[in-house]
Design goal:
Helices cover 46% and strands 18% of the residues. It is α/β, with parallel strands linked by helices and 419 residues long. The protein folds into two domains: 2-201 and 397-417, Glycogen Phosphorylase B (Rossmann fold, 3-Layer(aba) Sandwich), CATH 3.40.50.2000; 204-395, Rossmann fold (3-Layer(aba) Sandwich). It has an eight-stranded mixed sheet with strand order 3-4-2-1-5-6-7-8, with helices on both faces. A six-stranded parallel sheet has the order 11-10-9-12-13-14, with helices on both faces. Helix 3 (116-129) crosses helix 5 and helix 11 (327-333) packs across helix 14.
Length: 419
């Protein structure tokens, strides 16, 4: 099977968007498929081209057996809606221009979103080659960003929603990461029987290998960044953007420091629009029990979790209840107890897995109480971490998810070839 994936995010960028088809694509290659990813030059999350990378009209490389074609993007930095719109629109245009003249036709085209503009490009490329289109939806835009107050509803949003309905209805299959999103996508126009839930999950074989390979390097990197390894480390590894609500963590750390509790150290690893804000708070409020560091190569994250006492997964209050941060799966894969502050489907997963403490999004006292409960009983905390690991092994191993995803693709190809 020849698979063309259109993805605005890819290795070496951080986070779930880049990891999803890095891991899935590698699994498809191992199954004998020919995988091409049409992407751009690394710039996420700051919207600036990474140091050492240089944009060209086109660049082709091979990563883990995946053919990666990079096209240019207008990356001006910053996080205003106008600059984000230019970032998304220019990749959609350059990816379409590069994809149209491809000489080897794929058997199907996948567009992984958000942003939704990727889905428009992938849908047009599927039309150009006369092959099935698969839309992969990690978050439902534009309604998610409107609900979060990041943009205002208006004619432009209505136009995007109309285009989304066309792409949803015209896709041979739609894949998404949670049951709640499946329900909503059907409401928005996806055809019954075409929507499949395939969670992000964790690549356990890779995670375990990299944890062993990088644990010493991770500890050395933490020491280099003045992180005290004699404390119970609570590690958050991910994006520093408004939806994560990381100010609550600093509020919590400030309260514990004021109370004289020196048992914990909060380690926030990553990058994003709020990085400088978090650093400024740590400095001006003299938070000695918080480190804001990174970003780091994704391969180092398992080693960082190995050094942790507990992992942190946090979202601020949201209007939807079907968002499941991908970091919940690697957090549970680490075997460390998970400290979760979020609502909805991800909280249900953590409750069922019994993998640590669970508190509502934005609930500072609940988050404090959960930490205190974990600190009060080391054996119970270790047992919860072990239960989280077993849950991921049973339900969310990306190797098994890749097999199910590939079955969806094969079925779409078969239907496309049917007379």
């Amino acid at each position: 099977m020849r698979v063309l994936v259109v993805s605005q995010f890819f290795h070496p960028e951080m986070g779930a968007p880049a990891a999803r088809f890095g891991d899935l694509g590698r699994a498809f290659v191992q199954a004998g498929d020919d995988v091409t990813v049409l992407t751009t030059f690394p710039n996420f999350p700051q919207g600036r081209i990474y140091p050492g990378a240089r944009q060209r009209l086109s660049q082709t490389e091979t990563i883990d057996g995946i053919r990666v074609i990079r096209t240019p993007i207008l990356a001006l930095g910053g996080h205003t809606p106008a600059r984000k719109a230019m970032l998304y629109a220019t990749f959609a245009a350059s990816a379409l221009a590069r994809g149209l003249p491809l000489t080897t036709a794929p058997d199907l085209v996948i567009g992984t979103t958000p942003p939704p503009t990727v889905g428009y490009t992938s849908w047009l490329l599927a039309k150009r080659f006369g092959v099935p289109h698969v839309l992969d939806v990690r978050d439902i835009w534009p309604e998610a960003v409107v609900a979060a107050g990041r943009v205002q509803a208006g004619p432009a949003i209505q136009a995007l929603e109309a285009l989304n309905r066309v792409v949803l209805a015209g896709s041979a299959a739609v894949t998404t990461v949670s049951e709640g999103k499946k329900v909503r996508l059907l409401e928005l126009g996806a055809r019954p029987g075409t929507v499949h839930v395939l969670s992000n999950g964790a690549d356990l074989a890779r995670f375990d290998r990299e944890a062993l390979e990088t644990k010493d390097q991770a500890r050395a990197w933490l020491v280099q960044n003045a992180v005290p390894l004699d404390k119970n480390l609570v590690v958050y590894a991910g994006v520093f953007n408004p939806p994560q609500g990381l100010d609550l963590v600093l509020d919590l750390a400030k309260q514990r420091q004021a109370a004289g509790d020196q048992r914990l150290h909060f380690c926030l690893v990553g990058d994003g629009s709020l990085r400088q804000h978090l650093l400024d708070r740590v400095r001006t409020e003299n938070l000695k029990n918080v480190s804001v560091i990174g970003p780091v190569d994704r391969k180092l994250v398992p080693g960082l979790y190995h050094a942790a006492w507990a992992t942190l997964v946090i979202l601020r209050p949201r209007k939807d209840n079907h968002t499941v941060p991908s970091k919940i799966y690697e957090s549970m894969a680490s075997g460390r107890p998970v400290i979760l502050s979020a609502d909805g489907e991800v909280a249900d997963i953590a409750w069922i897995a019994d993998c640590g403490s669970v508190s509502a999004a934005g609930d500072g006292p609940g988050l404090q109480a959960g930490l205190d409960a974990l600190l009060a009983d080391d054996a119970a905390a270790d047992a919860q971490g072990a239960r989280g690991r077993r849950y991921v092994e049973t339900h969310n191993d990306r190797a098994e998810i890749a097999q199910r995803f590939r079955a969806v693709l094969l079925d779409a190809v078969a239907q496309g070839r049917a007379p």
